[in-house]
Amino acid sequence: MPTTVDTAENPPGGRSAARTLTRLWPYVRPVRARLFTAALVAILASCTGLVFPLVLKWMVDGPVADGDTAGVWLGALLLLGLGVAEALLFGFRRWLVARPLAGVEASMRADLYRHLQRVPVAFHDRWASGQLLSRGTTDLMLVRLFLAFPLTFMVVNGATILVGVALLLAQDWTLGLVLLAPVVPLVVLLAYFEGRFAAVARRAQDQVGDLTTVVEESVLGIRIIKGFGRHRSQARAFRELSRTLRGTELAKARLLAAIWGVITTLPELAIGAALVLGSVRVADGDLSAGTLVAFLSTALALRWPVESLGFLLAMSQEAATATERYFEVMDAARETDPETGEARVEGAGGGIRFEGVSFRYPDAPDDEPPVLDRIDLHVRPGETMALVGATGSGKTTLTALVPRLHEVSGGRITLDGQDIAALPRERVRELVSVAFEEPTLFSASVGENVLMGAGADAGQPELERALAVAQADFVHRLPQGVDTQVGEQGLSLSGGQRQRLALARAVVGRPRFLVLDDPLSALDVHTEALVEAALRRVLADTTALVVAHRPSTVLLADRVALLSGGRVAAVGTHQELLRSNAEYAWLMSGSAVADGTAGHAADGTAGGTIRGATDSTAGHAAGSGTGTAADGTAGGAER
Ligand SMILES: Nc1ncnc2c1ncn2[C@@H]1O[C@H](COP(=O)(O)OP(=O)(O)OP(=O)(O)O)[C@@H](O)[C@H]1O
């Protein structure tokens, strides 16, 4: 899992917030009618608020001045009615937008998830999972909030301000101009603020992603952290990151406070000036008291729409950053399949054939030699080929090329004579089944995890057969048998148990081709022997490529290919390579050394000797009390 976040490749800015936000249109389009209606309702509600001052003016200059009590009651009832209407209209607006916007958020999230399934594995190698998580959660929530609130209220408040200003100018244009005086400095300040806030908002959202990554890794790696007593240093790293985030959030708050201060103070000063000027004019008899009350009430009613602009802009800016981050992922190219293509390669023959296959990881430095360099290898139909090589020699990489988890950089791979690059990926993955050394189980039942490897029509018989092949009968002793929930949110299984389920998943669909990356590494010798025996039956009618580190796994294969320096250094049977290839003999004798039979390994009798060695180890294990595995209760022993 990647641990670093390369946000440098995605610099903020470039586009304006408004242009970035227009990218949301395809998602908003289906609900546009509701959004527009909601905006109109909100404008109506907001303008209802502006009628209050006019009623007040009528009350002050009319019934109040004339001492008409009935008129005052009528005015009060009118004000109450207006208040109720305003509240009902705002409630109606909320009802209009809530459901469709939850839908917009859900569909954006679904698209993101679908996209993440379809981008190449190399994309996931490059991106930290926390960054992806935060884009799928926090960022999408910010986008929904923007559509629900700032988007509407920018329009509503804008319209209210325009209507309000028109009313002010109509009531008294001199006082109106006094109130409009702060507009120019405010616009300049808001433009400056937007630029500054955009940069800080981006930094904060990226830091949330980093923090999510650290939390996720700490949870997944809790055993390592505890085992190595690293909880303090891990906590320190977390604290530092969260302190950085806190600093960025405070910087955001400071910017917001500054702009809020300016947005509040300038209009207040203008209202104060209008009040003084208006009072003087009322005293001079130039202006009626009712007009001044109405004027000031209108000005005060406009305070909220003006003051809210600051945080509406801030929320819009955060939403623009969130949208930018969302589309950075959505813009990553998906795996594409050829529209049509001639997959058959003349003369390629059956089985798996590698022809001049080269591979280099996309992010590898240019001066680094390729991981795989012109590999030629033929796994004949029905044959099992073991892949042996030193650590880091490229075995896993080579196996990942067969199901097209990575694309070859040069050369080609054919399956039964069909070039995999010209086949749809889905077809390739139907033909090829895989099991990796690191067996991943999903939060689902045992049965669902295993049947993932088969077509939709596979059922109980196929499941039972696969479990038998993988010697995974321990599942029947789990609390709910094959229905027991496993994975992150279920029962914890041992490494060996998980490997056996992963193996069952690989064989359940009776694949034409099988790619196994050291699938037996976590099994004790007894279980390994049992799985091998069952696997031998599966391998008999499958074409398989099996990464092997141990002689016992190599012995499952008909032939062995030795990978060295990015090339296939030798191909032959285990016995042939032991005799003819010093590197192979050395690699294989590594295990034998541990068993004290290295001397025999080198003289060509290693096959039998190594087997004997593992058997004797097994005998020892049984004698030392771990032999319960042999009587089929291995699961219990491993737990
Ligand atoms: N995702 C990746 N991005 C860049 N380089 C990688 C990536 N995965 C592996 N490598 C590099 O490719 C080389 C081959 O790795 P690979 O995992 O294929 O070796 P291996 O033979 O399977 O090793 P082992 O026996 O230890 O499992 C290594 O040098 C490794 O550092």
TrEMBL record:
GO terms for molecular function: ABC-type oligopeptide transporter activity; ATP binding; ATP hydrolysis activity. It is a multi-pass membrane protein. The chain crosses the membrane at residues 35-60, 72-92, 145-169, 175-193, 255-277. Keywords: ATP-binding, Cell membrane, Membrane, Nucleotide-binding, Transmembrane, Transmembrane helix, Transport. It comes from the Bacteria. PROSITE patterns: ABC_TM1F, ABC_TRANSPORTER_1, ABC_TRANSPORTER_2. One of its GO terms (cellular component) is plasma membrane. CDD domains: ABC_6TM_Rv0194_D1_like. It is found in: Cell membrane. The keyword Transmembrane helix applies. InterPro entries: AAA+_ATPase, ABC1_TM_dom, ABC1_TM_sf, ABC_transporter-like_ATP-bd, ABC_transporter-like_CS, P-loop_NTPase, Type_1_exporter. Residues 36-318 form the ABC transmembrane type-1 domain. Residues 612-632 have a biased composition (Low complexity). Residues 611-639 are annotated as: Disordered. This is ABC transporter.
